[in-house]
Amino acid sequence: MVPHNSKNFHLFLCIFLIVLQGCTHMAQVVSNKVSEQKIQQQALYAIKDVNIIPMTTGSEIIEQATVVVQDHKITAINGPIPEAAQIIDGKGKWLIPGLIDMHVHNPTDLNFGASYPTKSPNFLMDTQDLMLLYIANGVTTAFELSGRPEHMAQRNEIVKTGLIAPRIALAALIDGGNGSGLVANTPSDGRQTVRIAKALGYEFIKIYSSINLETFSAIVDEANKQGMKVVGHIPDTFKGRLSEAFVPHFDMVAHAEEYAKQSPDFSDRDAAHFAKLAKDNNTWLTATLITMVRIAEQARTLDSLRDLQYLSYVHPLLQSKWLTANQYNRGSSPDRIAHFEKMAEFHIRLVKAFKRAGVPIVAGTDAGTSGVVWGYALHDELELLVKAGLTPAEALAAATRLPAKWLQLEDKVGTIQPGKWADMVLLDANPLENIRNTKKISGVFINGQWVDKSQLAAMLSKLAKKNIAGKDKYDWKKRSEL
Ligand SMILES: [Zn+2]
Q1: What spacing in Å lies between the alpha carbon of 292 and ligand 1's midpoint?
Q2: Model-level pTM?
């Protein structure tokens, strides 16, 4: 209890500050220890004779170049090769910045059972198993759009235990109505919710569909005051009054679907109108084209899911959820299938219109939606962006330089330049000639750590075996009994 007497209060404050400083110091000692260990493990690398696609604005390919990596960073391009460097042969290969997925949902440890004080999770997600899927696909940064405390724990675990994993940015989700998580139904609650999210350590705000009109504006305004960018659905309240959603600092729309829902006839005229609204307000677009493609497939049949090449890498509990409690397939009808297919087709036209209007488009997948597998889906998304009229170079920018800029990480990742963190993907073929070549991964640098194709393949095969062996233990319907 805080003493009331002011002298006592001062004493209390001093003690409090000493304790706090003590804690901070302790934290520093621990983190120095960790980083010392890391630096000792840290090798020095030189990639030789490689074709660099730096992804800086207007940059040319740097052919047969040398890239030096030391202490997490790219330290030189075409400089001298340090004697101690481990050489990676880049001959005939292509080096691109690590890829960024701008819309993901990561499973975490969770309690599916009864709630009680001191409850702990009854489902444990192996963080490395999940993160491997990103790294095996060259995804070195991911943007989690429904951040929970468990994601903070996951992020801490990655750093503390040195997992091979992407960097993760976290958006706190705010919804209206009776939503779960952070809920706000008045402007003052909206503002307070943003301040709480900031205090809890989230970097961004995600707005969800049931927020009302006044609360929406208040959240966007407060987020700007708190230095937090806003990504969101377009709340249902804006149906028929879409232009009112485009208030200053509504920074990005999380799906092309958010626009599609506003068009009764899926017309190109509507697409052009939406693109103009976004352009005029500097609201970027994460199209998540792959999501609707997968939803349409699953509405038709779950065979597409069963045949998914990389389903075996998905945790058995989620495989069970996707196959036995699939909301897109359950009660599906020819009308519904036709609707999803039309949506998927309109999304392509939306991207064309947004490109024409000059709206920045970034690559995101909604990974975690059934059938949308972490890491793998980003390559599907890149292919779809090219199908929608982006050049391979534009599609690559949508997964490197542009998202780094939106996330305010452009001084750290997103391009290959000396001084940037060493997040890079070495490819066996040129992705500018065919965007599918982003899948031909020879190895990945994550935070200066090199993981080659054979190591990744070995880890993936071990994971698939583990998932097969554990299959009978996990049934979505019995998740509370885990
Ligand atoms: Zn999502």
Answers
A1: 12
A2: 0.91
